[in-house]
Design brief:
The complex is a heterotrimer. By secondary structure, chain B is mainly α. Helices cover about 75% and strands about 0% of the residues of chain B. Chain C folds into two domains: about 140 residues, no CATH class; about 90 residues, no CATH class. The chains are: A alpha/beta, B mainly alpha, C mainly alpha.
């Protein structure tokens, strides 16, 4: 078989940095192979992906050594748009790869760049949309698509330039299990048609079934090429922070909590969102120190429910009552609920980690000494003390999330809600987050986790609540 | 203006800067004044906030000609989309050209604090002057809108623009610290 | 806080029922119309003719089903005019003087604002960018314009996520708070928004290039729009009407 991608003694260094980010990489990928590339966040896999199509060094800059050849073209000698016809690229965030508002125009963007004739473009659009099973959506506005549909359009938009190789960089991060399954089915089909596929992802479940080989990276090195069965090796997984492909929802016992204090009580909650979405007949109780998981597919109402609990949304239909520790001790009223939204970039405002924690605290009528003490203890317990002077936006994804949780912890909430905290998270960082959640819950903070990441939910929750189309549902119905 | 000097990355960021300008402007002047294109209060209030955003765009791209592109596109958006007031098209283009021209003569490129402050100041000054002379072309009474008023408003807006540029350059410093802008 | 209606023109959607002949015209023709009418109303001196022009524009708004949308904006303008005349009347005590100074100007501005809004509410911005591309405007301008209008709704959504995060950190958000502590805008809004913009724009650039985009290359277009009969007919009609106005105006001012 012909080599589709060849990497030879490859090194790369980002602009203005002294250390190499990729070190001595060697790899051959054959035509028609399905390669699964994985490793911890920051191991260099996304950087390597950008080298495949020449984005590195042509667009991003920096210094390379060695060679990468794609379909016989050395990335040094060809500009990104000249390699584009050979290699397609799908990114994690569909929002940043769409240039138009209509599905048809979006798929046409690539062929238009090659100045093809309208008839040819139309032919390719029809073909590409059929490949991703989206033909009926040709006139749809991209705003009306689900996340999964968006990613399929992103694939079609690449297929329309007829590339031999398709690189997908964490395409399923924002997808629920259903959407991810559908995406992988399509990749499976493309593989059968002879496309070379390089998938970079944390979800290992599907790779175990479909990949021809697994490549594990760590700290800028390729550890080795393996057979898919390597993913079942517990020790390898632990060592390189890889997700478990075979996790099952263990019977979370829903045990009656020994703790007596009720923190949250919801009774007969009904809510109609401005977009017409309805949340119906929700009732639940939460005890002090309990970790409750709310699971369900995208659009099932998880985030709406959380927004109601945190007070971002309000309703008069039904009861939401939060019993805070302060009330039990008859002391001053305080902020009771903390909620971490999905994207940390939206939630960090200050110029250092320390100030981030202090942000808004003075409004809580605490004296400066108390504020200082409080921040210090939170920083200590969350392992952030050594980062306290760093700019929050210069931190890694996991550190940002910790900063954010700490900022809310500094406000001493009785209830902490985390919305999809494991989006795009590897096994190593997920385990760390699970430990932190356990630690918080032992210090009698109640936690609600909203997620469709079953491995994470299974490892961290005491109790589960299933949501389906705005109603409470059962485990059987959710999994069925 | 040699356009080949701009990379796709530059243009994508200029595009984002413009989108951001529109958002910031809308948020800043919520309500009535957002919808009355000729309202002097609007241009005065937005002069400051818009300049903050522009200064960041200029600092990241760094190349002369950036302001002209911003001017042309801002002009097209203001002239044909919203508030759809055609005279804003030449106004924005002239403002951008003037700022680019002055910066090229004085500093050669965008980057330093002074270059950002100057460019934003000049831009707002020229734009205000042009936009306020336009009503006169359409028969507005010179008795009410005297040249003294035009000059005072232009200076005021120029000053606010420069102040916006200063705040913008402070943010740029912080973005460098955060690693979001590298150069 | 962020009213989605303000950004509605950028979503590029019209209801089936709304679409009129004016929606279907080539954007280039409509741009010519806006420019032409603006110049026309600058030249015409006669108040009567300006009034006729106002009626003409209102008629076009009715025909193109945009009167209610544009009307909201125009109402504010009319209130402003009334206020200006009233204030001048109070100050000078001479109503006729106030009217004489303001009426021609307001009529012209009314025409200009209405035609602009007429264009805006019948043309999706994306179509505008496409037509500019056909008019051989440099790619650096059309690509950047496309990005700007495509990402205005996206950034609006990002901004509202940031507002939510601010609220969750106990920051109260009202117009009064903004006036009281402008630092909150600086810190809470601008920094995260800009950081998001930088990240998004880098991703956009990479995505564009990896799909074959290059500033210096020629592009083709799926929807090659040609001028149709309706476009030519509209151009002829507008030229005819404008000429009538100019001739009438010349003869009126000649008489005086």
């Amino acid at each position: 078989m012909v080599n589709m991608v060849e990497i030879e003694n490859f090194y790369y260094r980002y602009p203005h940095q002294t250390d190499y980010c990729l070190k001595d990489l060697n790899l051959d990928i054959k035509k028609g192979e399905f390669v699964f590339l994985t490793g911890k966040s920051g191991c260099g896999k996304s950087t390597l992906a950008k080298c495949f199509n020449g984005t590195i060094p042509h667009t991003i800059g920096g210094e390379i050594e060695g060679n990468i050849t794609v379909n016989g073209k050395n990335t040094r000698d060809y500009k990104v748009n000249e390699i584009a016809a050979d290699i397609g690229f799908v990114f994690q965030n569909p929002e940043s790869q769409f240039f138009t508002l209509k599905v048809e125009d979006e798929v046409a963007f690539g062929p238009e760049n090659f100045a093809l004739k309208p008839e040819e473009i139309q032919k390719r659009i029809n073909w590409a949309l059929k490949e991703v099973e989206m033909s009926e959506m040709i006139n749809e506005n991209v705003y009306n698509l689900s996340e999964g549909q968006k990613q399929r359009i992103a694939i079609a938009a690449n297929l329309s330039i007829l590339p031999e190789v398709l690189v997908l960089d964490e395409p399923t991060s924002n997808l629920d299990p259903k959407g991810a399954q559908r995406l992988f089915n399509i990749l499976d089909k493309l593989k059968d048609k002879g496309k070379t596929i390089i998938l970079i992802d944390h979800r290992t479940q599907y790779a175990l079934k479909t990949a021809d080989k697994i490549i594990i990276m760590d700290e800028g090195n390729i550890i080795n090429e393996f057979d898919p069965e390597i993913l079942e090796d517990n020790q390898i997984r632990k060592k390189f922070g890889i997700r478990d492909p075979n996790y099952k929802i263990r019977n979370i016992k829903n045990h009656s909590n020994k703790r007596k204090f009720k923190v949250l009580e919801i009774k007969d909650l009904n809510f109609v969102h401005s977009n017409g979405f309805k949340l119906q007949d929700i009732s639940l109780d939460l005890k002090e120190g309990e970790v409750l998981g709310i699971v369900g597919n995208n659009g099932s109402g998880k985030t709406t429910l959380a927004s109601l609990i945190s007070g971002l949304l309000k309703t008069k239909n039904g009861k939401i009552k939060i019993y805070s520790a302060q009330e039990r001790n008859n002391s001053k009223k305080n902020y009771k609920v903390g909620m971490v939204l999905q994207n940390p970039d939206h939630q960090l405002f200050m110029d250092s980690v320390y100030n981030e924690l202090a942000f808004g605290l003075e409004e809580m009528e605490l004296n400066p000494e108390d504020i200082k003490k409080q921040i210090q203890s939170v920083l200590d317990s969350m392992n952030l003390w050594q980062l306290k002077d760093r700019h929050p936006h210069s931190l890694s994804g996991g550190e940002k999330q910790r900063t954010l949780i700490s900022a809310l912890m500094a406000r001493k909430p009785d209830l902490l809600i985390l919305d999809e905290p494991t989006t795009g998270m590897d096994g190593y960082h997920m385990d760390k987050l699970v430990l932190q959640i356990k630690k918080l819950s032992t210090s009698s903070i109640s936690i609600i986790l909203i997620s469709h990441d079953m491995e994470f939910i299974d490892k961290s929750c005491d109790r589960l609540l299933y949501l389906e189309e705005g109603r409470l549902s059962t485990k059987e119905s959710f999994l069925g | 203006m040699k356009e080949s000097r701009f990379t796709t990355r530059d243009l994508a960021f200029i595009g984002m800067t413009l989108a951001l300008m529109y958002i910031v402007q809308t948020i800043t002047i919520l309500g009535v004044s957002a919808l009355t294109p000729f309202d002097a209060a609007k241009s005065i209030v937005s002069a400051f906030f818009v300049s903050i955003v522009i200064a960041i765009g200029l600092a990241k791209v760094g190349k002369i000609g950036t302001f002209t592109i911003i001017g042309i596109i801002n002009g097209i958006i203001c002239g044909f989309i919203l508030p759809a007031f055609l005279p804003l098209l030449p106004t924005a283009i002239l403002g951008g050209l003037a700022a680019d021209g002055v910066t090229k003569m004085l500093y050669g490129e965008y980057g330093s604090r002074n270059s950002l402050v100057t460019a934003c100041g000049v831009n707002q000054l020229v734009m205000t002057m042009v936009i306020l002379t336009i009503p006169l072309l359409f028969g507005f009474s010179t008795m009410i809108l005297s040249s003294a008023i035009i000059i005072v408003s232009a200076l005021l807006c120029g000053g606010l623009g420069a102040a916006g540029g200063l705040v913008g350059s402070k943010i740029v410093d912080e973005l460098r610290k955060a690693g979001a802008i590298t150069d | 806080m962020i009213n989605s209606e303000i950004f509605s023109p950028f979503k590029g959607e019209f209801d089936e029922g709304e679409i009129s002949f004016f929606h279907k015209l080539d954007p280039r023709v409509k741009m010519g119309f806006v420019v032409g009418i603006t110049l026309l109303c600058a030249f015409i001196q006669s108040n009567i003719l300006l009034g006729l022009l106002v009626l003409l524009v209102i008629m076009m708004m009715i025909l193109s089903n945009t009167l209610t949308k544009v009307g909201k904006f125009l109402l504010i303008f009319i209130l402003f005019c009334a206020l200006a005349i009233f204030l001048t009347f109070i100050i000078t005590g001479n109503l006729l003087y106030a009217m004489k100074h303001f009426i021609p100007f307001f009529l012209r501005f009314f025409v200009m604002i209405s035609t602009g809004l007429l264009f805006a509410f019948t043309t999706p911005p994306q179509k505008l960018a496409q037509s500019l591309e056909k008019m051989k405007v440099p790619t650096s301008v059309t690509f950047t314009l496309s990005i700007a209008i495509r990402y205005i709704p996206t950034l609006a959504r990002e901004a509202s996520a940031i507002f939510k995060a601010l609220k969750l950190r106990g920051v109260k958000i009202s117009t009064w708070d903004f006036i009281k502590k402008p630092g909150y805008i600086y810190r809470g809004m601008i920094i995260p928004l800009i950081i998001r913009s930088i990240k998004l724009s880098d991703e956009i650039a990479i995505a564009a290039e990896s799909r074959g985009f290059c500033i210096s290359n020629d592009r083709s277009s799926l929807n090659e729009v040609e001028f149709g009969m309706k476009d030519y007919r509209f151009i002829l009609l507008i030229i005819f009407i404008s000429s009538c106005f100019l001739i009438l105006d010349a003869s009126i001012s000649f008489k005086f």
